[in-house]
Design goal:
This protein is an all-alpha fold. Keywords: Membrane, Transmembrane, Transmembrane helix.
Length: 193
């Protein structure tokens, strides 16, 4: 079944759309607050489709992601009880917030760097940082460094790999896609309560 190769072609069409930078910026902003779609899903194909604009796209993603993080921080800081907590409960994310609190206790500000650079859900930590009233300026600086490293790395890999990497990716995209789905199902079955 060639589902992932069709999706890849569709994403590559979106990546060259004239409004793609606006969509990337919007996705970067909301992904730092609540949106589940990672920025890399848009950034990588955009950088691959237009390598001369890759660094511009990485900068856009970084700036708007950190702006979203600041907004998420402010929501956690000022709107926890009336707005955020009911949303967390409705989504069943109480355990994620509890884990985030524990990680803050264990690692302090480094948890922001880890969450901003890795696939760990950054949004949980932006809101929790506000809830715990973490110092705002260090929060922003560490977020800027972590998000910048991640997005410039993604763009750099796309520029470096270029057409060679794309041809290999297209050849194996369906196999990789189904392998990821299988891994997610196995992880869910092993980790569910």
């Amino acid at each position: 079944m060639k589902l992932f190769s069709r999706l890849y072609r569709l994403v590559m069409m979106w990546a060259v759309h004239r409004h793609a930078p606006v969509y990337l910026s919007m996705n970067s902003f909301v992904e730092s607050i609540f949106w589940p779609v990672p920025v890399d899903v848009m950034l990588a194909p955009m950088a691959l489709a237009k390598p001369d604009r890759a660094w511009h796209y990485a900068a856009l993603a970084t700036v708007f992601s950190v702006l979203g993080a600041a907004f998420g921080y402010l929501l956690g800081y000022a709107m926890w009880e009336p707005l955020v907590e009911p949303f967390i409960q409705a989504m069943g994310y109480q355990d994620k917030i509890a884990v985030a609190r524990q990680w803050f206790d264990d690692w302090g500000i480094w948890v922001i760097f880890i969450a901003s650079f890795t696939p760990i859900p950054y949004k949980v930590f932006t809101v929790t940082a506000g809830l715990l009233q973490m110092a705002f300026l260090p929060f922003i600086l560490v977020s800027l460094i972590g998000r910048g490293l991640r997005f410039f790395l993604v763009s750099g890999l796309m520029v470096w790999g270029g057409v060679r990497m794309e041809s290999r990716l297209i050849r194996y995209i369906d196999l990789l896609g189904w392998a990821c789905v299988a891994a997610a199902v196995v992880a869910y079955l092993l980790l569910r309560p």
